[in-house]
């Protein structure tokens, strides 16, 4: 490896969100009724997702949105409370999701804009392209073309 090469690490946010949800469920998390009523966008599928609901990245991301942060933090003014810590966690996850899921150079939300790198020959970076899902979608199309039950040969793949 070249001594001056830069290495950048990025989160795969859809899979990170799914991991967070699985860990919360494994540790038997509880959500208070006041929080649910304060965030009308949350549904039962957000709180207790079924097997296929967990795979829905959009719904999972909604559970870590700014509106969930606002609904969670508005009911508690105590700085060191568990509810405030949860609200801060939700806000951090929301920010990370926006930053590592950029799809445009220009967005009214600056956190959702492509990374402006201007170094190493890269001018900008759409971070959503660094996730595993686009690659999984390509392989899904290939499997669909050749039948779901078999793996295409290298010649067919080409």
From TrEMBL:
A Pfam short name: TNP-like_GBD
Residues annotated as domain Transposable element P transposase-like GTP-binding insertion: 36-111
Sequence ranges assigned to domain Transposable element P transposase-like RNase H C-terminal in this UniProt record: 131-158
Domain of life: Eukaryota
The protein's name in its UniProt record: Transposase
